[in-house]
Automatic annotation (TrEMBL):
UniProt domain HTH cro/C1-type: residue ranges: 31-80
Protein name: HTH cro/C1-type domain-containing protein
Record-linked InterPro entries: Cro/C1-type_HTH, Lambda_DNA-bd_dom_sf, MLTR_LBD
Listed Gene3D superfamilies: 3.30.450.180, lambda repressor-like DNA-binding domains
PROSITE patterns given in the database record: HTH_CROC1 (PS50943)
Organism: Micromonospora saelicesensis
Molecular function as annotated in GO: DNA binding
Amino acid sequence: MDDVDEFAQVLRAWRDRVRPEDVGLPPGLGRRAPGLRREELAQLARVSVDYIVRLEQGRARHPSPQLLASLARALRLNDLERDHLFRVAGAAVPPAGLVPRQVTPSAQRMVDRFRNAPVAVAVHTAIGELVLWNPLWAALFGDPSSQTRLERNVTWMYFAGSIPVTHTPEDDEAYARDLVGHLRTAAGRYPDDPDIHQLIDRLLKASPDFARRWKAGTVGELRTSRKTLHTELVGDIVVDCDTFTGGPGDQTIVMMTAVPDSEDEQKLDLLRVIGLQQLQRRPG
């Protein structure tokens, strides 16, 4: 069996073992197999259904590392399975010493569980790059799948881009300090990752505020804060932002919630519905 056949076989096998409810999708009716349909995998991996068909039939060669990472996340692969997927696809396995971008199955399940709740949840790498999100997050901040990796980086967005969020002056100062400290901590843990050095260099050139804070030598982690989110569709929303750090791969899970039964929670729930509708309308 050559690598193309092996790639097609494991892709079909791993698709068959993932239940729709495991990824936040409805079970549906008339299923001939317990796993995901090709259309569902295409939706989760953000590729066309035709491309999934060609991959499973061995007619598509040399998928990109970005696509392989998307498939690995969609199929809930562990690290060994992900590395095997890369090898049989003819791609280089992500080397050790780099900031992990592979989302763990447990983090993926947490995001899936909040697909139908008024909770915005996302997973960031150790350097603040957004790698997984639910539909409500996309409705609040724009579809990350249409953004570059730099545009999806929360530290870059805060210091050099734009983000539709405001804090109290005290919380804003603490948040800026935490972002810089969190990035410095990651730089110490992953000194051989060129992406970290490139991000820091770009931030130093683009933002005098970041440069000043970086020079101060701050080291730290992100903390819980209260934010006001500014949206065009439903106006301002006040949320509590809880940040969970220290998980596998030093990834961070961010959750935004509003006071139960409040007007702010009702606005989040409306945007959640809009986010799901936009996801369903996106071409596969």
